[in-house]
Every structure is written in structure tokens, then in C-alpha cells.
């Protein structure tokens, strides 16, 4: 089939699904709505596969399918087309989006069946996929921005899906506005790049990037990429704009899986990977990205340890993992970042869907203190979740191990990395292992603390099939990117992903050849840290559940601070939002009401007063009027005579 | 202008000064008196003063137009007196008052 | 005769309205008339030469010979869409006011048509005096519209509106007369033609207020700034909007404010290039202040309509910013934003009017949970909200993006500040949206005795064209921008010595051309 | 001192004196009589200026008709000597007096100084020139009859429009006066 037709179907299929479900938004027929939506995304998935296979068929240096539909906006020299292209990077992304997307749609069909707004839900979900595809495929930054804002919008709609709850509506708003901060920075980044390169076309920028020379430590490239990165921190929930993501768990769980774990939140990393040629020539930005990524990974992981809400734990875990990805791209390991995007999409989607299955079984209970011992009630969920757990804490040969290890190795080895970054990364890997094990223990293992009124049960097949598929992917997903050191040892297994991405990823300058023994050592160290903390967690939460409480009590202030998420929300409220609202009130009251209006009143009063004075001259007495005539006469004559 | 000839040599200026003095007297009457009728009389004085100037000019420029103007002025003065007095009568009939102070309906 | 027809047909309609004997068929007649007017105005598109920057469809008749005053109208890419916006929005207003205006219906429609004549005339007039006549004429129907069909404090609002606007216009009249005098000095013939004005070189001295060009610049700019309104002369707008009836608000926001920005583009920038260049920092600053200030103040308004009114201040700040950066992006964006604002803010006022008809309140705090009760209304409101906060693929994005990009190219500092408006805009709109539509049902919404009804067919018909336009303009901006391109290029490329020629082959038939 | 010089001074004193009397008498009847005296004086001045016809008209219209009107009205009102004949406002009174004083000073000063004021210029140079230009007419208008004739000719040729307009005006005045006199006074009907 012609590529433009394929591309059109790929993009429009979810959009048409959105329209169909959008028009019949009141229907409660969840099977039909879910069917339409899943089919729409599945058609996209097929198109993606076809496009991807076409891409594979092309020679390595020409792997690019570019389709232009129409000229979108052209003013003077600024020209943006409604054009899309698939290359090695976006090819992987569309597979993830439509593949994981169809699974999650399928899961949702069952999960949301009791909800009245199920059709509306599916229309939003399809709209999201549509926007995500635009984001990923757009051939210019502006087209990407269309999807960028579009997914933010869908996220807003889906987080606030149960809008009758004030908190949830507020969470949606928070997500959108926080994202908007990032978007504003993204806009500025685009302006700077346009001023520098005279185009917003991603390929043109990438090909021009090596010729650009950074003149100062904060030149156009650094500034531009920095702003783009701020945009990415908004979308991908990094410090300082990560605050919306934990709140975003107010949305339905499949949404958290699709949008807030697998796809949308990785848009920031995707954007940086796609623009890697300009990021690599802005080392200052790269440093900032790596530091922010590492800090986010550490901070979110530490918060994750203290949370009691199953989805909150996963949310902080997502923030932490996203931090990893930024750490990766920050040290120049773009391929590793994208690799982790992919594996993370598998196992985090799996875990979110698993948690959805649990929540579903527990009748909307999300507090892990009221769970425990669910293993025997829901075996499939447990086992799939178990595999996801192994993947995320980095047990070989599960998916997470390879991607995470590559990131840690690169953060040490890359000239842009440093041992400190590695240490932070390894520490957060340990924390990840700890809180994930804690989650496993409290939810599935140990004694049951389920209230009497709740009778947990395994979810129906429509929900477990996606779990199984994702679990499978979480196991094998990492095998396409087996690092050279392992591949070499086990008989020349190639790093498929690395080779695939090589033409579009700019290599790290001055990269020393890898020292295999050091790599093995670090790998062992990080694996050791992860397994020890997993073991400790198991001991704490299954064997002797009283210990964590004691530890928490002994370091109460610190625990409280972490449990309350370092009070960042409160800080933002205190230092930004409340003052802003207060200032708004003040400027309105003092400037509009009491200054400008008062001023106009004063002018009016002056005129009125002037009128009053002249009015008092109108005594009504004819003789006084006559006197005025006489005075006028005197004045006129005086003037004549004096002249 | 030497004072000796001022008394003996009657020029246009003499008439004009006479006219202006009479005019000012009339104006003083209009401004200062309270009785509507006296004010009307003062108005007549002013008109007469102007007439003197006209005639004087007419004489000294040998132009008959000045006299015609006086003729017009007198006619209008008569008309004005008639109307003014009619108004005074009307007002007096209504308010039993001729003091101008009582008629301040034009107060702003 | 096409332009004259477009200008004066509504005047004729207004007369017919005034003397129409039947109350019952009045609205239908008005709707029909406005549609006829819209269709005729569409004919401009077919007559218009898209590739030319010249003044087209010119009609020129001597009016007052002695002072060189003519009846002189013409259209180019800058005014084209504004005229169409005016004719497009009138039938919508008539349909929207079907039930809300129930007193003095005749007078209302007559006012509306009179206003239409005045507004179109303002956009098309190429003679200063003719322009001034239309400019002032537009005040009168608006004055009555707010004063007669307005809310509780309508007299206060209408007088404020009138006096603010008049205060500016008077100076402009002086400036126009002085311009005519200057034209006579320069060419020997007194003329009020804008095209002649363009040819005059007005002395300019940098660094002082007391040079001729600067004074004229400010005399014109003040009049337009009040109309726009630019901060700090904006305070009449919230009051006028709050007190105006829905149709009044829609016209005010949709078209009348654009008269100010359009005139900046038609009169101020080309006529006084040096002063514009020299003082652009002032207007850029005021524009930026307007953006941020309007957004902040909008955020804390307890009244939906006032909130939208302040959001207008913010949006108009963008337009001013775009116009005064003096490059293609900014000016194109400015023109586009004029249309966007007309469509989206007009639609917002229409929607607020619809809900006001149901609940008779605009207090945000009394609402809540509307989304569950009025889903169709919510969908429309949400789409328009998106357009207002400039989400891509809606019209607002194109305008805002081009303006910000133009600003960044010309003066990055302003862009850095203005971009906060993007965030604040989302903040105030979504916060309002949350409080009105989400959460628990507010006291007005849960009132058992007066259950709220969702939009009826008429109201949907009112909204649909606007929504279509929102997306059309967002997805295919080139359909609109292609028409304005030549004119904008011409303006930017010749900004230091602007001139405008008459498109000879597009001179209306039967009109003698030439002085 | 020639007779005509004496006559001028005598009449001037008479006119100013009786004019002041109009102003100063508190009794309107006396004022009216003084006014009549002034009118007669003015008529006499007219004669000294060779305006015989106008002097006659002055006597008939003013001293006759208008004065009769005044006296009639005073009689009608039955007004006696007034306690408050003059306005009482201190500031306005002072201002009025100052205005009047200044005005008279200015006019007289202007005339006497003669140099710069327009009155003076006309009185000296221009008057002489105009007089010369009109000398031909002067010759024709030697006697009183001739002067009157010339007046009549001018009135009915050059100024016919004004004359007719006056006729209309007088008709209107006659009607208006009657209407006013018949009305119950003012528009503030109770």
C-alpha cells in the first residue's frame, strides 16, 4: 500500500474512533464503544507494523518514510507542513503507542464497563492516541507541538474524567497548567531554534546542527535546548514540574498505564532523542539534563518508599524511571534512553494494569495497607505483576535489567557522565528495588489484611490477556538491546537496537573504549544493591512487619518530610500560586478599581467641579449677566488700547 | 490736545465723549438699579448715547447713512421699549413685583 | 458598487426594521436580511484579487469638494476578513438573541444593522472624514444597546464606555484635520484621502514628544488604544461587557475592539513610520503588560463575564504586541488573532448568555458540576475554551504562535514575558472551567424547581458555525492567510515609506476613478 | 466762545445731568421725567449736528411716544419712592461700579488720546478724508430740506430692505406686545 495512505490510516483511524464514540458519547454500551476504540487503535497498530516492516526493508541509511499531506502554515519564510515521517526512532515509538495502546484499550473495555461515561472515556482515549501519534510522527517541531499540547489536553480530560469529584478535576487542571509551563518553555525553545536555523523542520535542524557553533556558555543552542528541556520536564514529570504526575493518578487506572506511564510522559525523552544532534552540541544543557534526571530519580524513589496508595507508589516509580531516562540522554546515551522508554512502557504498563486489576478486585480500594496475600485470590495478576517486578528492579535477563544497566554504565563511562551520577543512579536503583518489593509484599504476599466486606477475585480474561502479553514483553523486551559486553560473552549476540538506531543517533564525542571488567563490576554492583534492598524489603514487610514502623518512628521528621513528598506542593502553593492569586487581587483592587478608575473619576469630578464653578456664575440675575458684558467690554477695549 | 482749544473748538471727539459718558451712565443704570422700569429707561439712555455718536459721525463724515442708522435704532428702541414694558406689565400682573432680584429663573 | 452595497444595505435594513409593522415576523426578517448581507459580502471574495497588495474594489465620489473630502471606500487584505467577520457574526447574533431580547425588538434590530453599517464602513473607509463619521457612528447604536437592553448598572457602564471612547476620538479628529492641512502644505490640494496622507512626509524628531509626527501619532494612537483597549485605558471594557446584553457583548468583543487594532494597522503604523518605530517599545510594553495583567486580573474575577472581558484585555495585548513588532509574523499573527478573538470570545459571550438565560446569574461560585447536567453546552464551552487558551489545531494557537514568534524575532525580551500569558491564560480559563463545570453541583445547578435544560436546536445552530470556524482556522490557516499575505508583505516591506495604490482593474464598475 | 460752542457745552451738561438724574432718583417718576429731559437734550444736540429730521423724530418717538409709555406704566404700577433702589451685593456692586468706571475711563481716554485707538484715528485723519470724499454730496445737501430729502432718498433706495424689515418687525412687535399684555404672565403657569 502507498505510504501516504498507510500514514493517513495510521493517524486517522484513532481520530475516527474518537469521532464515532464522541458523537454517541451518552451510550452506555461498553462493549461496542470499547470495541470501536480498540479496533481503531489496532488498525493503527497494523499500519505501524506495515510501515515498520517497510522501514526495515530499506537500506540502513535511507530508513525514512516521509509523507506530506498539505501545507499547514506559511508566513514569509516560516513554512510548516502537515507532514509526518517514520524513521528508526519514531518507528519504535509508534509500535509502542499503538501496540501497548491496543492492549490497554482492550483492558479498559472490561475495566470501565460499570462506568456510565464509558463511551466518552474511549473517545478521549482514542483522541489521545491520535495526538500521541502526531507528536511522534510530526516532521517539524511545530507539528510535534500540536501533538504535545494535544496529549496534554487528553491527559487533562482523562485525569478529570470523574469530574464530579473536585479533587480529580483539580488534578486534571494541575496537570494541564503545569504542562503549560513546560509548553511555554517549549515555545521559546522553538523560537530560538527558528531564529538560529531558520526552520523548524526536525530533519533540517538535525542536519544543520553540527554546523552550528556555540559561541558562549549560554548561547542560542544551549538556551534553545534548555528551553526545550524545560518543556520536557513538564511533559515528562521532572524536577521542578513533576508535581502533576502523582496527582494524575486520579484518572482511571488504564489511563495511568497508557498516558502516565507508557507513552505521554516519555514524550520529553522522545523529543530529546529525536533532536539528539542539537542536544549533543550543547554540553551545558546535557549536564543540566543529567543532573535533573538523576535528582528526580533519587527524590521520586525516596518518596515512593513511603507511600501507601498503590497507584501513588507506581506514579513515583514512573517519575523515578523517567529520571533515569533523562539521566541517560543527559550523558549522551540517547539509545539507552529510548531503550528504557520501551522496556519501561512494557513493565510499567503491566504494573499499572496489574494494579488496576487489583483495584478492580478490591472494589476501588487503593490503600496497600488494606491488601496483602492477594496472591491466592488472583494468580494471573500476581504472576504477571511478579514478572514486572523482576523487570523493574533489574534482575537479569528481564527487560529492565538491560536498559537500566546500560543507563548506569553510560552514566559512569560517558565523558559527560561521572561516578557521582552513577552512584545516585545506583542508589535510586536500590530504592526502586526496595519500594517495589515493598509493594509486592504488601499487596500480594504476607498476611491478608483485606476487610471482611471485600471479596477479591481474579479479573476476567479481557483484563488478564493484556497482562499476559505485557508480561511476556517485559521478559523478552530487553533482549533486543543486549549490551556488547554480555553479547560478546555469550557468543556474539548483536545489540539489535543499538545497530538499528545508529544512523540517527549522533555518537558521544570522545567516548573511550569500554573497559569490560569495569563494566562487569559495575553491573554486579548495581545488581547487588538491587537484590540486597529487595531482600531487605522482603524481610521488613513479610517476615517482620513491625520493623518499618519502628524505623519510621525513629527518624520521624525525615520520614514525615518524605511521606509528605518533601512538601513541594505546599512550597509551590506558598511561593507561587497563592502569591500570584494574592497579587492578582491586589493589582485588580489597587490598579484597576482604585487607581485607573479613581483617576478617571477624579478627572470627571474635576470637569464636574469646573462646571459647578461656571454654573455658580449663572446666578439668574440679569444684572449680573449685564455686568459680565461690561467686564467683557472693558477687557476688549483694554486689549485694543494697549495694543 | 491743548486745553484752551478743548473748550472752544468743538470737534467730533466732544460728541463722542458726550456719547460715551451718556452710555456709561445708562449702563450704570442697567447694572445698578433694581426697578425693571428704571432699567428699561437706562437702556433708552444707552441707545440715545449711541445715536449721538451716529449723528456725530454722520455730520463729520458728511454721510447720510449714519442718520438712517439712527432712524432704525429709534424704531427698534421704541419697539423694544414697548415689548419690555409689556413684559414688565405681564410680570407685575403675575408677581406684583418690579424688583429685578426676584426674577432669577435663569439660575444655572 | 459591491462595497457600497455591503456598507449601506444594513442601513436600509435598519430602516425597514424601524417601519416594519409586524412584530411576529420581525426576527425572521432580520435573520433573512443578515444572511443576505452575509452572502453579498461573500461576493467580495470572488471579486478580490488575492495576489495583489493594492486597494481593490475602489469607489470614489467627491463629497465635499472644497476640503477634498470624498466618499472613498476600498478593500485590501488587511480589511477583508474583518468585513467578513462582521457580516458573519451578525446573523449569529440575531439568532442568539431570539429569546433573550424581548423588549423593543424593533429598535434592537435597527441598532444592530446600523452598527453593522458603521463597523463595515470603518473597515472600508479610505477617506479620513468618512472614516471618522463611521467611527463615531458606531458608538451610537452601541450606546443604546448597552443603555437600553443592558443589566443593572447599564447607565454607568454605557456612559463610561461613551466618554472613554469619545475622549480619544476628539483628539483623533484634531489630528485628522491637521493631517489634511499637512497634505495641503505638501501637495497644494487639500485632501482627506488616506492615500494622499500616506504620501506626506511628516517631520519627526527623535527623543522628544513635541515633534509633529509624534504628536499626530499619539493623537491617533490614543483613540485606537482606548477602543482596543490597551492597558491602562481598558477599564471601560469589563464594565461595558458585564452590563451589555449578550448580543452587545458579542459585537463589542467580536468586532468593535478590532476596529481599534485594525486602525492601528491602517492608520497609525503606515502613516507615522518613524514615530511607530521609535515608540514601539512603549506599545510593546503596554501590550505585554496587558497580556499579563489581563490574565492575572481575569483569574480572580467572581463573574464569568468579567473574567472573559479581562481575558479580552489579555488577548488584545497579544494583538498589539504582534502589530508593533513590525514584521510579517507579528502582523499576520495580529490580523489572525483579531479574527480568532472575534470568533472565540464572541462565542464565549454567546455561551455565557445562554447559561445566563437559564440561571440569571454569572457568579462563578454559584455554579459547579454543570458538565453533568448540560453535556452539549459543556462540549461547546470546552471547545471554545480551548480556542481561547490557544490549543493547537484551534484558531487561537496560530495567532498566538505567530505573534510570539514575531515578537521573539524582533524583541525577545517581550516574548519572554508574553509567553507567561500562555500559562496564565490556561490557568484562568481552566480554573473557571473547573469551578463552573466540575465538582459538586452548585446552588444554581441543583435547584430542583428549575431543572436546567441543555441547549436547544436554535442554540446549537448558533454555536456550530463558530465551532467549525474554530477548527477550520486552526487546521487550515493558509486558507485565510493567503488572502492577507500580499498586503502584509507590502506593509512590512515598505513600512518606512508606505504607499497604497488602487487596483485599476478592480475598480468598481460605473465609478469614475481619479481626482 | 461762539454760540454754537456755548450751545454744545450747555446741552452736554444738560444731557449728562439729566442722565445722572435718571440714574440717581429713587422715585421712578422723577427718573422718567429726567429721561424726558435727556431726550429733549439729545434732540437739541441732533439739531446742532444738522440732523433736523432725526431730531424731530427723536422728539416725537422718544419724548412723545416712549415717554408716555413709561409714565403710563409707572402710573399703572403705582410705584412710590423705593427703599432699595440700588442693588445690594457688595462684591458684585463693587465690580459693577469698577466696570462702569473703567469703561468710561477707557472710552474717554481712548478718544482723547486719539493716537492709537480706532476712534481717535477715525476722528482725525479718516474723518477728514471721508469728509472730502463726500464734499460733493455736501454741496448738494446745503439746506435742511435738502438734507432731509437726501435722507429720504437713501432710506427708500439704498436701505429699502432694512426699512421694510423694520416694518415687519414693528408689526410683529405690535402683535407680540398685545399678546404679552393679555397673558397672565410668564410661562410658569400655576
Would you mind describing this structure in some detail?
By secondary structure, chain B is an all-alpha fold. Chain B is 78% helix and 0% strand. Chain B contains 4 helices and no strands. In chain B, helix 2 (12-32) packs antiparallel against helix 3 and helix 3 (36-61) runs antiparallel to helix 4. In chain C, 62% of the residues are buried. Residues 510-515 of chain C have low confidence and may be disordered. Chain D is an all-alpha fold and 190 residues long. Chain D is built from 8 helices and no strands. In chain D, helix 1 (3-24) runs antiparallel to helix 2 (28-48) and helix 2 runs antiparallel to helix 3. Chain D is globular. At the B-D interface, helix 2, helix 3 and helix 4 of B face helix 1, helix 2, helix 3, helix 4 and helix 5 of D.
Write the layout of secondary structure elements.
The complex is a heterotetramer of chains A (643), B (108), C (515) and D (190).
Chain A: H1 3-23, H2 30-57, E1 65-75, E2 78-86, H3 88-111, H4 118-137, H5 141-159, H6 166-197, H7 202-208, H8 220-235, H9 244-247, H10 253-262, H11 267-274, H12 276-280, H13 283-306, H14 310-330, H15 334-361, H16 379-393, H17 399-413, H18 419-443, H19 461-476, H20 484-489, H21 496-501, H22 516-543, H23 546-554, H24 556-563, H25 568-617, H26 622-642
Antiparallel strand pairs in A: 1-2
Chain B: H1 3-8, H2 12-32, H3 36-61, H4 65-95
Helix pairs in contact in B: 2-3, 3-4
Chain C: H1 2-19, H2 26-47, E1 56-64, E2 69-75, H3 77-96, H4 105-124, H5 128-137, H6 139-149, H7 154-187, H8 194-199, H9 212-227, H10 236-243, H11 246-271, H12 273-299, H13 304-324, H14 328-359, H15 370-373, H16 375-388, H17 395-410, H18 412-418, H19 420-437, H20 457-475, H21 477-493
Antiparallel strand pairs in C: 1-2
Helix pairs in contact in C: 1-2, 1-4, 2-3, 2-4, 3-4, 3-11, 3-14, 3-20, 3-21, 4-5, 4-6, 5-7, 6-7, 7-9, 7-10, 9-11, 10-13, 11-13, 11-14, 12-13, 12-18, 12-19, 13-14, 13-17, 13-19, 14-16, 14-17, 14-20, 14-21, 16-19, 17-18, 17-20, 20-21
Amino acid at each position: 500500500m502507498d505510504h501516504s495512505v498507510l500514514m493517513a490510516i495510521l493517524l486517522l483511524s484513532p481520530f475516527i474512533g474518537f469521532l464515532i464514540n464522541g458523537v454517541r458519547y451518552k451510550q452506555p454500551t461498553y462493549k461496542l464503544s470499547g470495541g470501536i476504540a480498540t479496533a481503531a487503535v489496532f488498525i493503527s497498530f497494523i499500519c505501524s507494523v506495515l510501515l515498520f516492516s517497510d522501514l526495515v526493508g530499506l537500506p540502513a541509511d535511507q530508513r525514512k518514510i516521509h509523507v506530506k499531506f498539505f501545507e499547514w502554515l506559511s508566513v514569509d519564510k516560516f513554512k510548516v507542513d502537515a507532514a509526518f515521517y517514520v524513521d528508526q526512532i519514531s518507528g519504535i515509538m509508534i509500535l509502542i503507542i499503538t501496540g501497548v495502546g491496543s492492549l490497554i484499550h482492550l483492558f479498559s473495555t472490561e475495566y470501565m464497563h460499570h462506568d456510565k461515561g464509558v463511551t466518552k472515556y474511549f473517545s478521549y482515549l482514542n483522541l489521545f492516541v491520535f495526538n500521541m501519534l502526531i507528536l511522534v510522527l510530526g516532521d517539524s517541531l511545530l507539528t510535534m507541538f500540536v501533538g504535545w499540547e494535544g496529549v496534554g489536553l487528553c491527559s487533562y480530560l482523562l485525569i478529570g474524567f470523574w469530574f464530579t469529584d473536585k479533587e480529580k478535576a483539580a488534578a486534571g487542571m494541575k496537570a494541564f497548567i503545569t504542562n503549560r509551563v513546560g509548553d511555554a518553555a517549549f515555545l521559546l525553545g522553538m523560537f530560538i531554534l527558528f531564529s538560529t536555523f531558520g526552520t523548524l523542520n526536525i530533519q533540517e535542524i538535525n542536519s544543520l546542527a553540527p554546523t552550528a557553533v556555540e559561541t558562549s556558555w549560554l548561547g542560542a543552542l544551549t538556551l534553545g535546548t534548555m528551553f526545550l528541556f524545560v518543556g520536557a520536564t513538564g511533559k515528562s514529570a521532572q524536577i521542578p514540574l513533576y508535581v502533576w504526575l502523582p496527582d494524575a493518578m486520579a484518572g482511571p487506572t488504564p489511563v495511568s498505564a497508557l498516558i502516565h506511564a507508557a507513552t505521554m510522559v516519555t514524550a520529553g525523552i522522545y523529543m530529546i532523542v529525536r533532536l539528539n544532534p542539537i542536544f549533543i552540541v550543547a554540553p551545558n544543557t546535557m549536564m543540566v539534563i543529567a543532573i535533573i534526571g538523576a535528582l528526580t530519580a533519587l527524590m521520586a524513589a525516596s518518596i515512593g518508599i513511603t507511600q501507601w496508595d498503590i497507584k501513588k507508589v507506581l506514579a513515583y516509580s514512573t517519575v523515578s524511571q523517567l529520571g533515569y531516562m533523562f539521566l541517560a540522554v543527559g550523558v549522551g546515551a540517547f539509545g539507552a534512553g529510548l531503550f528504557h522508554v520501551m522496556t519501561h512502557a512494557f513493565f510499567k504498563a503491566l504494573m499499572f494494569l496489574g494494579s488496576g486489576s487489583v483495584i478492580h478486585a478490591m472494589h476501588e480500594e487503593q490503600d496497600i495497607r488494606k491488601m496483602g496475600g492477594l496472591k491466592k485470590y488472583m494468580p494471573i495478576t500476581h504472576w504477571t505483576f511478579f514478572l514486572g517486578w523482576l523487570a523493574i528492579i533489574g534482575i537479569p535477563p528481564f527487560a529492565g535489567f538491560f536498559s537500566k544497566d546500560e543507563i548506569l554504565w553510560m552514566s559512569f563511562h560517558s565523558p559527560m557522565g561521572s561516578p557521582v551520577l552513577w552512584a545516585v543512579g545506583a542508589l535510586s536503583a536500590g530504592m526502586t528495588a526496595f519500594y517495589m518489593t515493598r509493594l509486592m509484599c504488601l499487596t500480594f504476599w504476607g498476611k491478608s489484611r483485606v476487610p471482611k466486606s471485600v471479596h477479591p477475585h481474579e479479573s476476567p480474561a479481557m483484563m488478564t490477556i493484556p497482562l499476559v502479553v505485557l508480561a511476556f514483553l517485559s521478559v523478552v523486551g530487553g533482549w533486543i538491546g543486549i549490551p556488547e559486553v554480555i553479547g560478546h560473552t555469550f557468543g556474539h549476540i548483536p545489540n539489535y537496537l543499538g545497530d538499528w538506531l545508529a544512523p540517527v543517533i549522533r555518537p558521544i564525542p570522545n567516548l573511550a573504549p569500554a573497559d569490560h571488567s569495569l563494566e562487569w563490576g559495575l553491573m554486579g554492583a548495581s545488581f547487588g544493591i538491587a537484590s540486597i534492598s529487595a531482600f531487605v524489603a522482603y524481610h521488613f514487610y513479610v517476615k517482620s512487619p513491625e520493623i518499618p514502623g519502628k524505623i519510621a518512628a525513629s527518624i520521624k521528621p525525615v520520614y514525615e518530610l518524605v511521606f509528605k513528598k518533601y512538601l513541594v506542593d505546599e512550597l509551590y502553593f506558598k511561593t507561587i500560586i497563592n502569591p500570584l492569586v494574592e497579587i492578582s487581587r491586589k493589582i485588580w483592587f489597587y490598579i484597576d478599581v482604585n487607581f485607573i478608575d479613581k483617576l478617571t473619576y477624579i478627572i470627571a469630578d474635576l470637569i464636574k467641579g469646573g462646571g459647578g464653578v461656571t454654573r455658580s456664575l449663572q446666578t439668574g440675575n440679569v444684572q449680573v449677566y449685564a455686568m459680565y458684558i461690561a467686564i467683557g467690554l472693558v477687557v476688549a477695549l483694554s486689549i485694543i488700547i494697549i495694543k | 490736545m491743548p486745553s484752551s482749544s478743548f473748550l472752544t473748538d468743538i470737534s467730533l471727539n466732544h460728541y463722542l465723549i458726550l456719547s460715551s459718558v451718556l452710555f456709561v451712565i445708562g449702563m450704570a443704570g442697567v447694572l445698578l438699579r433694581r426697578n425693571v422700569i428704571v432699567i428699561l429707561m437706562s437702556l433708552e439712555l444707552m441707545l440715545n448715547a449711541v445715536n449721538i455718536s451716529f449723528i456725530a459721525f454722520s455730520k463729520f463724515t458728511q454721510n447720510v447713512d449714519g442718520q438712517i442708522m439712527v432712524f432704525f435704532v429709534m424704531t427698534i428702541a421704541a419697539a423694544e421699549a414697548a415689548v419690555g414694558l409689556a413684559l414688565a406689565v405681564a410680570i407685575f400682573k403675575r408677581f406684583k413685583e418690579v424688583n429685578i432680584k426676584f426674577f432669577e429663573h435663569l439660575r444655572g | 458598487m459591491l462595497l457600497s452595497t455591503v456598507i449601506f444595505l444594513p442601513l436600509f435594513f435598519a430602516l425597514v426594521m424601524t417601519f416594519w409593522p409586524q412584530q411576529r415576523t420581525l426576527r425572521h426578517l432580520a435573520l433573512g436580511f443578515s444572511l443576505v448581507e452575509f452572502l453579498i459580502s461573500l461576493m467580495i471574495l470572488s471579486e478580490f484579487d488575492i495576489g495583489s497588495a493594492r486597494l481593490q474594489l475602489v469607489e470614489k465620489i467627491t463629497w465635499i469638494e472644497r476640503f477634498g473630502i470624498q466618499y472613498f471606500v476600498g478593500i485590501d487584505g488587511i480589511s477583508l476578513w474583518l468585513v467578513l467577520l462582521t457580516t458573519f457574526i451578525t446573523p449569529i447574533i440575531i439568532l442568539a438573541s431570539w429569546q433573550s431580547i424581548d423588549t423593543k425588538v424593533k429598535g434592537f434590530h435597527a441598532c444592530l444593522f446600523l452598527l453593522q453599517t458603521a463597523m463595515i464602513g470603518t473597515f472600508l473607509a479610505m477617506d479620513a472624514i468618512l472614516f471618522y463619521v463611521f467611527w463615531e457612528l458606531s458608538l451610537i447604536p452601541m450606546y443604546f444597546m448597552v443603555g437600553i437592553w443592558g443589566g443593572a448598572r447599564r447607565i454607568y457602564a454605557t456612559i463610561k464606555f461613551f466618554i472613554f471612547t469619545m475622549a480619544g476620538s476628539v483628539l483623533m479628529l484634531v489630528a485628522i484635520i491637521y493631517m489634511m492641512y499637512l497634505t495641503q502644505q505638501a501637495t497644494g490640494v487639500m485632501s482627506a484621502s488616506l492615500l494622499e496622507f500616506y504620501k506626506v512626509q511628516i517631520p519627526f524628531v527623535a527623543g522628544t514628544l513635541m515633534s509633529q509626527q509624534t504628536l499626530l501619532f499619539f493623537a491617533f494612537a490614543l483613540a485606537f488604544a482606548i477602543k482596543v483597549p490597551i492597558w491602562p485605558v481598558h477599564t471601560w471594557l469589563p464594565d461595558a461587557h458585564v452590563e451589555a446584553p449578550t448580543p452587545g457583548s458579542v459585537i463589542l468583543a467580536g468586532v468593535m475592539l478590532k476596529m481599534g487594532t485594525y486602525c492601528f494597522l491602517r492608520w497609525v503604523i503606515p502613516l507615522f513610520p518613524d514615530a511607530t518605530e521609535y515608540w514601539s517599545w512603549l506599545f510593546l510594553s503596554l501590550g505585554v503588560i496587558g497580556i499579563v495583567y489581563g490574565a492575572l486580573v481575569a483569574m480572580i474575577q467572581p463573574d464569568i463575564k468579567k473574567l472573559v472581558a479581562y481575558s479580552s484585555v489579555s488577548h488584545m495585548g497579544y494583538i498589539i504586541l504582534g502589530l508593533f513588532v513590525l514584521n510579517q509574523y507579528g502582523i499576520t499573527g495580529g490580523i489572525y488573532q483579531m479574527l480568532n478573538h472575534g470568533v472565540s470570545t464572541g462565542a464565549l459571550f454567546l455561551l455565557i448568555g445562554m447559561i445566563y438565560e437559564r440561571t440569571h446569574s454569572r457568579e462563578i461560585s454559584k455554579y459547579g458540576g454543570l458538565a453533568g447536567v448540560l453535556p452539549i453546552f459543556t462540549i461547546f464551552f470546552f471547545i471554545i475554551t480551548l480556542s481561547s487558551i490557544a490549543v493547537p489545531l484551534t484558531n487561537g494557537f496560530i495567532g498566538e504562535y505567530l505573534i510570539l514568534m514575531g515578537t521573539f524575532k524582533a524583541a525577545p525580551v517581550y516574548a519572554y514575558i508574553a509567553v507567561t500569558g500562555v500559562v496564565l491564560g490556561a490557568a484562568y480559563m481552566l480554573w473557571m472551567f473547573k469551578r463552573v463545570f466540575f465538582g459538586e453541583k452548585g446552588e444554581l445547578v441543583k435547584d430542583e424547581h428549575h431543572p436546567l435544560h441543555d441547549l436547544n436546536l436554535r442554540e446549537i445552530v448558533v454555536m456550530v458555525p463558530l465551532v467549525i470556524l474554530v477548527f477550520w482556522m486552526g487546521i487550515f490557516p493558509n486558507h485565510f492567510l493567503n488572502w492577507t499575505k500580499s498586503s502584509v508583505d507590502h506593509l512590512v516591506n515598505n513600512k518606512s515609506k508606505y504607499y497604497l495604490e488602487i487596483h485599476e482593474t478592480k475598480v468598481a464598475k460605473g465609478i469614475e476613478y481619479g481626482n | 466762545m461762539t454760540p454754537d460752542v456755548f450751545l454744545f457745552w450747555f446741552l452736554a451738561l444738560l444731557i449728562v445731568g439729566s442722565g445722572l438724574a435718571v440714574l440717581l432718583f429713587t422715585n421712578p417718576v422723577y427718573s422718567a421725567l429726567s429721561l424726558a429731559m435727556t431726550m429733549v437734550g439729545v434732540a437739541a444736540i441732533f439739531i446742532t449736528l444738522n440732523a433736523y429730521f432725526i431730531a424731530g423724530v427723536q422728539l416725537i418717538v422718544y419724548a412723545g411716544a416712549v415717554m408716555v409709555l413709561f409714565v403710563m406704566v409707572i402710573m399703572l404700577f403705582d410705584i412710590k419712592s423705593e427703599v432699595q433702589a440700588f442693588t445690594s451685593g457688595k462684591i458684585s456692586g463693587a465690580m459693577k461700579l469698577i466696570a462702569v468706571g473703567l469703561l468710561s475711563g477707557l472710552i474717554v481716554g481712548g478718544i482723547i488720546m486719539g493716537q492709537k485707538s480706532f476712534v481717535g484715528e477715525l476722528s482725525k485723519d479718516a474723518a477728514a478724508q471721508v469728509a472730502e470724499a463726500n464734499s460733493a454730496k455736501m454741496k448738494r445737501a446745503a439746506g435742511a430740506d435738502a438734507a432731509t430729502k437726501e435722507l429720504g432718498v437713501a432710506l427708500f433706495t439704498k436701505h429699502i430692505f432694512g426699512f421694510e424689515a423694520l416694518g415687519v418687525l414693528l408689526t410683529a412687535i405690535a402683535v407680540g406686545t398685545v399678546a404679552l399684555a393679555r397673558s397672565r404672565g410668564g410661562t410658569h403657569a400655576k
